[in-house]
Structures are given as C-alpha cells and as structure tokens.
Hints:
The chain is about 25% helix and about 20% strand. It is an alpha+beta fold. The protein is globular, with a radius of gyration of 29 Å.
Amino acid sequence: MALTDPATTGAINSRHASSPVIQSCNFCTALEKLLADDEVEVRLEKDEICEQSCTAHVPLFHWIETNYSEHLDRLEKARKYQIVADKGYALGTIFFFRVSGRTPWLRVYSRMGNRYGSYEVLLHSKISQEEKRSDYSSSALDPDWVDLGIVKEWKERCSKEHGLKCQNPEEKDVSPAWLIDTEDDCLVSGTDNHSFVALSYRWGSSTNQKIDKDTFEQLKCPGSLSRIKKFVTATVRDAIHTVRAIGERYFWVDAICIAPDNKEELAEQLQLMGGIYASAKLTIVVLDGDSSNGIMGLKSQSSPRSLAHIFPWKDGKSVMVRQLPSLSVQSQVVSKYFQRGWTFQEYTLSQRRLIFGDQQIHWQCSCATWHEDLPGLEDPTHSLKFPNIKQGWPDFKEFNVLLNEYNNRQLTYPEDAFPAVNGLLTYLESFSFECGFLFGLPRAFFDAALMWSYNIDPTRIDVRTRRGIYRRKPSERRHSVLPNTHLPSWSWIGWQGDSIGMLDTEAQFKWSDWTLDSGSGQLASLMRPSVITTPITQWYNHASRDGSDKQHIPRYPTVYNESSEISYDTEVWSVEGPMEYGYIPREAGGKYSYKHRQNLDMVPSSRAARSAPGLEVFGRMATVTKCG
C-alpha cells in the first residue's frame, strides 16, 4: 500500500494542521494509518525515515534502533551469527502491518531482508471498558496501578464459557492441611473442602524469619497474620491483598501453610503438592522478582509499577509497544521463575493462572490467555499437556517430556531434586502409574526403567551449547527438613540435564512413525527397531539400614509372555483375536492380541472423534498387566 495516496495523506495532514510536527513525515503518517485502518501494509526504508527532521516519532524510532542493536549483540555472543562490520546486518526496513481483527505490528528487517524483530504497537489512551473489549489498536493501561477488577471479569468469563474444559473431571480434589483465611487474617484447617487460591513464586534469598511451632499455633488466632508481620514476605503479603481484591477468601502458600517441626505432615504435604496446585481454583504466579520484592502496582498496598515502552508521540498522544512475557513453562531462557525446579510442577499442574509478569497481569487457563493491556483480546494457550497419561495410559513419551523439562532446571540445594518433583510424580500416579515411583523410576517397569539413557543429539555439535548431564552433588547444608533427599546414581534424579530417555525403545511403548508413501500418497507406518526386556532379577527397596522393612518391587510386566494366558483388566481390554502378524504388535501377549476400549487410530477418523469427544490422543498405549 503506497504512502503517497493524496486522499489519505491530505486527510491526515488537515486533521493535525496545528501540530508543530512535520506533516509530511512518512513514519508518523504510516503509524497513524496503522492505528486507524483495519488492513495495512506499508514499508519504509531507514534512510527514508532518517531524511526527515520530524521529532514526534524519535522516542519510538530510537527504541527500535537500540533494541535492534542489542538483539544483534545477543546473536553474536551466542555465536549464532558472525556479525562483523557488515552493512548487510544494519537496520534496513520497517514494515507496518495489520490484518482485520488483530493488533497492529511493526516488523524490522535488515538490509539483507532478514527479519530481526516484531513489535505490537498500540495507541495509549483513555478508553471505556466496552472499548477495551473490542478495540485492538488502543490500550487504556494505567501506567501506575494494576486493574484487579479485570480479574473478576476473566474469572466469570472462564467459568461461563469454558466450564469443565478448564477442569479435568477425572481429577480428585486435594485439600491442604492448612489455609489462610484472608477475611479472618489467620490460619484455618483446610480439611473443610474450601475453594482456595494458591501462590507460586521464587523464594530467592529471603531473610525473613522462619515460622516455628509456637508461632504456627499463634497464627491460628484471628488477626494474627497482620500482627506477626516478620514471618510474612512482601510477595506473600501482596498476594493476600490480591486474593481479597478479586473476591476470593482462602489462600495457600507453602511458607506459611505447612506446619513446622512435623515431619509426617511435611512429607504428606510435599507428596500432595501437585494435587494442591491442580485442585486450586486459581494460582497466583509471580514471575517478577522473588519473595522479598513484592508485587508492584497494587493500589493502596504496594509501590506504583513502572511500565516501560510507552513513548510520547504527537498531539498529546502516546504509543505503547506491547512487551508481553513468555507464559510457557518451557521459557527458561527469558525468565528466572521458569529456571527453578520447584516452580515447574506448580505451574504445570495449575488449572488457571493469574500471572504477574513484566509488571502487568495476565490470565491463562486451558482455553484462553488474556492480558491486561488488551483484556478482551483472546490468545490461545500453549501449555505442557499430557493427555494420554490423564486417560490412564502410561505414555512414556509424555513422561519423558515432563522429566526432561524438569531435570534441566536449577535447585538451590541439589538434594531437593526428588522432593521438588515428588508432587508431580504423585499426581501422575493417580492416573497411569498406580504402583508409584522409586526416586523417579516407575516401580511397575523398574527393570527396564533402570536402563534409562542419555541421548546425545548429533546436531548439537557446539560444545558451548551442548549441556549434557552432570552428577548432582549434595550441598554443604547440614540438615534438611525435607524427606528423601538422596541422589541415587541409578536414577535420573541423581543427574541434572535433559535428553534423557526411558522406556522409549521398549516394544510395547514404541510409537509408530507415520509418513506419506511417496508412491501412493497414503499414510505408511515405519517400524523402528525396538527391544523387549525380560526380567531376571527380583528387586527390593527398603528405608532401614538392615533391610528389615524391605518391599519387593513388581517385576517388569512385559506383555510378551510365552504363556497364552495373561492377566489383564477385562473392563478396558478385550481379546481381539489370534496373532496373525509377521511382527509382534504392542497390544499382544502370548497367542492373542488385545484391544483397549479407548484405542483410537493413529490418525483419528471422524468416527473415532465422535466416539470420544474432546479426547486428545497422540498414539496408542497398551499395558495389559496390572501390578499385584
């Protein structure tokens, strides 16, 4: 779309005839067009922009130039590009782009034509609540204070529009032992099935005094939390305020709601940690700072926030560049929160999240993501899911993804590796791993799981970027109140790093790979090499030194038994027929193959989709033996 359209240019110029800004400025003309029209495609060369002496767009354009240079510096430091004094890498073109119904964009290209940045830009102005929901080119974001009123709207909208989609009906709610009653300002029993809000945050190097047994008893008296402030960190205090402000009452936070000096309750609550976050009505997630920093921008509670990227423009207007944090649990590079081991299970298992990130609030549930600056604009949610496990199938492809995402994160105390993920493992037990885990290895498949391996990616040849795995070593901490802080070398728990594989080559868990046959154009299955593990050892585990409490570990339940009669759950499995294949299918045992009642095609047909609405299946799992 040309910028020299006389009708368009004349209309814009006459509207701002009194402005001291140069009316023929191509950048300002294009920006105004971008913020006003539904469909825009305008390209401007940097030389063309710099030729004009307009001062209105200087703050925004200077930020673009600075951000572009910093991006190139990061690329060079990461050795992704050898960027020297090459004019081809210099900023070349700015592309003003918008499609109907979406936000305006500025895209930045080098002189060689490579894109090195994309920014959503909005007109920052005072608009009504109704306009907030429909106008995607303007934002009324308060630069000082968070609008917690929007959260109530998001909660109501999620409840009405999403319903059970944002809550797995198969999950069993877990009640914490203790909750904070934000109205009575004290601790109350959590066994009364109260709906509650949880908190997920980084502890950091907080110097707040730890709660002792006597103080814990005092906190059960109404009004005690306000009186005994030295035990409540800034972030916890601000989160309590937030819970009240959004119309909720009960609140759970690990630093206060777990009784001290009670090893049994501590062990129990750590095991239930995954279920606690999964059962919370909402989880407040604080990406910014740690426990000592608090939450900025809570009116009458904390200091004002300081929003960057709002630039003065012309005629009293301002332009805002949207700077949204990555809300993916896999975004370790951009957020310290996502680099921590403890927060992984908290974030992954939360059904709904109210996120404080980049000094704005964001909502994320299973169906939608909303942001404070454009509260009516719905973005899709991209989260780490494991649908097959939740359907009752021990899907080791999904399990390995969870394992590797967690195992590359940081822990202040390496010996916390198992306690920090035990809540997630216990949560998985309620769906597909009924025999539980032994330091991260599934007990039901212990023989084969012991042969977990580290998979070297041949494409990661740069030594600086190939992390590998490293032996975890206990810290010099004299004593830990946490149970099971061992780091066994035979489990992945004793090692830090990703690219770990477990049971991924076992025949009964092997995934078929599908491709289009070049001749017929039909889907074809590629049979990959696989192995069958036959147990020859009876394993035991025990906690005492003398082994007096030893328990046998179930033998690996391979489905390829020589006997024609095998143990299987008749409620979900039926005999499909005698085996007539040249290879042994996964759903087989002895002389027969078996069919699972929820076994769908690899590529679901419309019939299969109708038979299991809403079921996401990425493959077929078959484990026909149960643990004794």
